Amino acid sequence: MESYQIIILLVVSGGLSLCLILNLIFKSVRGNLEKHIQEKFETKDIIGVTTRANFFGIKSKGVKQVRGNGAIVLTKDRLWFIRAVPLKEYEIPVNSIKRVSLPRSFNGKSVFAKLLCIHYEHNGVEDSIAWAIKNPLRWKESIEGLIARTHIDCH
User: Fold this and answer.
1) What domain count does the chain have?
2) For residue 118, with 0-12 CB atoms within 10 Å meaning exposed, 13-18 middle and 19 or more buried, which class applies?
3) What is the rounded CA–CA span in Å between residue 45 and residue 109?
4) In the chain, what is the straight-line distance between the N-terminal and C-terminal CA atoms, in Å?
5) Rounded distance, CA 151 to CA 7, Å?
């Protein structure tokens, strides 16, 4: 076997090993997130859930904040997010959500796809938070449906 063939074989096997290790890590992280969700929520209360949310941060905190992957849970009362590393929870009551948008960037970052962006009020101040998730339009429609019901219930 030629030396260049050995190098190619080592690079390919190293790449495959790295992919396998990363896959195992991500499965473990998602498993831990699912455990947190099961501990915090009754299955019957969950309207939507994903353990593959890429957190883009909170608008008011600017561009220099920790982003990361985590899980989102939507119930009739709240939108809850837990970031996997470092572990941190965020909770937005549905009645504080003012609107939902689907921008392609947030806080100066983009993945060149639509993001789920929640515009909400916290302590009398408007803010927003965003994630890259699969099918953000479906999430937007679900949240807007809850907002509409919340406003109807209040009147």
Assistant:
1) 1
2) buried
3) 33
4) 79
5) 64
Residue 36 lies in a domain: no
**In whole angstroms, what is the distance from residue 136 CA to residue 114 CA?**
7
CATH for 102: 2.30.29.30
pLDDT tens-digit map of 81-140: 999 888 899 999 999 999 999 999 999 898 999 999 999 999 999 999 999 999 999 999
> Which H/E stretch holds residue 10?
helix 3-40
- Contact 50/133 with Cβ under 8 angstroms? yes
pTM of the model: 0.80
**Adjacent-strand bridge partners of 117:** 101, 130
Per-residue tokens: 5:
């063939």
Is 71:50 a contact under the CB 8 Å cutoff?
A: yes
Are 117 and 101 within 8 A, CB to CB?
yes
Are the beta carbons of 131 and 57 closer than 8 angstroms?
no
CB 33 within 8 A of CB 54: no
